[in-house]
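[Meeting: bench + compute handoff]

Bench side (C.D.) handed over the final construct sequence. Compute side (W.E.) agreed to return the predicted structure before the next meeting so the bench team could plan truncations. Sequence as handed over:
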Amino acid sequence: MTYSRCRELMYKNKYSDRNNIAGLNIKRFRLQKDPRWSQNLLAAKLELNGLSVNKNAIQRIESGERFVTDIELKAIAELLNVSVDQLLDESVYKSNENNKDDSQNLAPTKKQVHYRQPSSGYGSREIADNSAKEDE
């Protein structure tokens, strides 16, 4: 066996191009909460349970950029009221094989954008998803 082949087999610690399996499931279960939980809220709840994970870490976990420790996985599962097995379910990846953009199936279709007008304070407006544009 060549050195490069041995090295390839030794460092098999990614799932496809992701650093974790649970990220998409964490996002899916977080968004299914009623009302929806933000990444900030999940991070705050983890902090209250003694786990130091900030919003950026949650974002990186969900996008697959960051590894998830077993301690983090267990704490997240408890907060989301799901089992660790549900977070490790790979079917969400199999259903997205033809769709390279994982967030497309999980994100809401409209975004709430807040902006500030100098004289009238804060306002908000909805921005429709680009795919919902009418044909010209």
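W.E. noted at the follow-up: DSSP finds eight helices and two strands in the chain. C.D. will use this when planning the next construct.
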